[in-house]
């Protein structure tokens, strides 16, 4: 009887722990994450356009990731924690990626010299 009660208590605690993790917000806001991922996509596009050895490419990407994390004032750990949060919440990941596409579209328009409203530049 005592063993069964102990197992029930452990299972209940595990259930509560799992549920509370689900409600935890990621360390990086959705808007900040969208800006960071859009910069990462641009950096990866630049890397793909260069003819580099795998070693050079790895160094290029590492230094650029470090620069982007510093630029956006986040750590690699915060980025990974936030990314894993979105991986586990597909609906929220879709919303995030929609913002990333919007941000890349704004940057593309600016690059092409098209008119972009102040609200679009600074959401």
Helix and strand arrangement:
Blueprint: H1 2-23, H2 30-49, H3 54-71, H4 76-87, H5 90-111, H6 118-121
Helix pairs in contact: 2-3, 2-5
Question: Can you describe this structure?
Answer:
The chain contains six helices and no strands. It is mainly alpha-helical and 123 residues long. Helix 2 (30-49) packs antiparallel against helix 3. The longest helix has 22 residues, at 2-23.
Short description:
The protein is mainly alpha-helical. Helices cover 80% and strands 0% of the residues.
Sheet having the most strands? none
* Mean pLDDT value: 82
Number of alpha- plus pi-helical segments: 6
Structural class, from helix and strand content? mainly alpha
Oligomeric state, counting identical vs distinct chains: single chain
Distance between the first and last residues' Cα: 59 Å
Order of helices and strands: HHHHHH
Q: Percentage of helical residues?
A: over 70%
By DSSP, the count of extended strands is 0
What are the segments in which pLDDT stays under 50 over at least 5 consecutive residues?
2-6
> What gross morphology would you assign?
globular
Beta fraction of the residues? Answer: under 5%
Radius of gyration: 20 Å
């Amino acid at each position: 009887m005592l063993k069964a009660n102990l197992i029930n208590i452990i299972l209940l605690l595990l259930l509560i722990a799992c549920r509370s993790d689900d409600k935890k917000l990621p360390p990086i806001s959705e808007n900040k994450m969208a800006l960071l991922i859009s910069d990462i996509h641009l950096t990866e596009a630049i890397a793909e356009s260069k003819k580099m050895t795998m070693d050079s490419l790895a160094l290029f990407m590492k230094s650029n990731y470090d620069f982007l994390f510093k630029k956006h004032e986040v750590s690699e750990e915060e980025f990974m924690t936030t990314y894993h949060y979105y991986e586990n919440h597909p609906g929220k990941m879709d919303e995030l990626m929609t913002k990333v596409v919007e941000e890349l579209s704004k940057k593309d328009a600016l690059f092409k010299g098209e008119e972009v409203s102040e609200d679009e530049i600074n959401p």
